[in-house]
# Entry
Amino acid sequence: MATSRLERIGTIFTRAEGLLKRGAMKPDDRPLWFDVYKAFPPIRPILYKEDVVRAKFHASGHGFAAMNMQNPSGETQIKKLMQQYEKLKTEGVPENELIEKSASNVSSERTQEVAQNKIPKASPETVTSQVLTEVNIKNIFKE
# Structure
């Protein structure tokens, strides 16, 4: 049943408020921020221009693989996408083509990085791989 609800509707505040009104949450169990938020609600929603671009990007069905957290440059795929988007926008690319071209440029850059081995592949000497080789899966639940 939980999948039938539309999770995009409402904020965490309205959800908590609904739980309190219907008795699903006791007033003593409400979050610490609830009373502060109720007394001083934000004047306007905080929305950055990158959020709109990201929403368009994800709505068009683009997505990237997992991010390498050990990457020393610290550049995420979304950051690269935003840079490409701004670059193409200054070049005068029509608005309806910006997302597609930005996504294809970033994906081709990622493919080139993988091909040049800039993105390291999983090392067989990792702790996880060592544990998995040592574990006896067939007898894992036997004492």
